[in-house]
Write a structure and sequence with these properties.
Helix 3 crosses helix 4. Strands 1-3-2 form a 3-stranded antiparallel beta sheet. 48% of the residues lie in helices and 12% in strands. The termini are far apart.
Length: 91
């Protein structure tokens, strides 16, 4: 690229030389399909809101072994299946 052009003209020339990225065809799930799927696990505050109980009540049930949790590092999750199992056991 020549340096005879003004800075604005150099920028325009550079933009014109860029090519768009090719479309990705090897993707397993598109971002749209991921957002349409229901979540598989929830954080404690989300699960408490879904069960319409306080976090303290949910932690007590977890401590008593009524609700099983998944740990991922320091984070605690409750799966959708576990929430459904717990609700069914309350009947």
């Amino acid at each position: 690229m020549s340096t005879d052009l003004a800075p604005d003209a150099q920028r325009q020339t550079f933009r014109a030389e860029r090519r768009p990225n090719p479309p990705r065809t090897n993707r397993v799930l598109s971002s749209q399909s991921v957002s349409q799927q229901p979540p598989l696990r929830f954080e404690v505050h989300e699960a408490a809101r879904m069960l319409r109980m306080s976090r303290a009540q949910l932690y007590n049930r977890m401590k008593d072994g009524l609700i099983r949790v998944q740990k991922d590092g320091a984070r605690t999750y409750i799966t959708r299946a576990e929430l459904e199992r717990y609700v069914a056991s309350c009947d």
